[in-house]
Amino acid sequence: MGSEDTRAAGFPVADYNARHLWHPMIDPKASRAAPPLVIARGDGVHVWDLEGRKYLDCTAGLWCVNVGHNHPALKRAIHEQLDRIAYYSSFGGYSNPPSIELSARLVALLTPERMVRVIYSSGGSDANETAIKLARQYWKLQGRADKTKIVSLRNAYHGVHFGGMSASGNPVWRKSYEPLMPGFLQVEGPYLYRNPFTDDPARLSEICTTLLEREILHQTPDTVAAFIAEPVQGAGGLIVPPPDYWPRLRTLCDKYDILLIADEVVTGFGRTGKMFGVRQWGVAPDLMSLAKGINSAYVPLGATVVNERVAAAWEKASPHAAIMHGFTYSGHPLACAAALANLRVVDEEKLPENAASTGAYLLERLQTLRRHPSVGDVRGIGLMLVLELVQDRSSKDPYPPGHAFCVAVEKALREAGVLVRVMGHRAIISPALVFTRAHADECVAALDAALCLHDRR
Hints:
The chain has 15 helices and 16 strands. With 457 residues, the chain is an alpha/beta fold.
């Protein structure tokens, strides 16, 4: 077909989807048996499929289109940059204006966390991989080369590269690619709805940080480089920690001289109701991984930021301390131009504040769905919310992966024109931060109707 525009030529996109294309996180045979919904365009919090059917997008694509689809300011910024130059390398002695300006903007935005340096990548997995590598190199520059181990949480998700995957805590992401990297350890996280210890949040926080401290001591602190966690666990179950959990983490890391990495890939730029997730608890980490909401996914971009303490190691190193890491698309001009426009929109439209207020309203409305016997738990913060679906409330027995009921719920939602991400036994809601109360009501009404499938059984 050469350079011919296949869309203009009437190319049968839906028919060809599973012939040549493998999709992430699914068995290819499943894509052939049940072809995916092909999204052709979007605007605000709505998207349309190839047949022109309209849907309320309660996923923001994948936690990421924070300013909404088709935002004119971001499109204009990309177009204007495209007229200048689409790409140039930022390796070695080269750079480009948007990446430089964005680095200054990010450092200013992260003044409360005392972040001073930025290194770019292409997305969240890259950003976490970068953070892990920088943490190890930091200790080498400090003359403490034995500090290499990375501790993380069960149920954590830190990406698909070998480092991030080794730090991720759910076997579903790991078992196909094992053995993983040595030197990665997981400890129990503060999953209030499902833990063997207690129903008291404060007590759970104390227990989990005690277990972390015991693991650090068992490994010996002189071998532990960093602890990495999401401020709110996302793909691993949308687990909101108790209020004192992150302050306890900071105290432990300081006590044993361990770097604290905040994986803000999902939580950054307003999703929790604060500009960054760690600000919910007033904690300043040593490194932060950013992506998704940094430019609302209009062009792939990730970033890792480091604080004064970490950056100083490279300044003091003698004679040289090269960062032997980077990506072809690090500091991509189009991506950085989109990010600059995105950050202006987030600020001017007060999107973190809207995430807080609309998210609180949506959480209150979702609580009404507890009347359905299949709803075991409802939780969330900002515009990160989840319904945990169970077969039996007393035992909290979850639906197994691919169970007909969960599949039917997602199908019913689609038929109602509402897109909610049903992952196993969890229905995750993470819309654009421009979501309104009217949109929240529409989402809850569709969920209510879909869950009635269980009530009628």
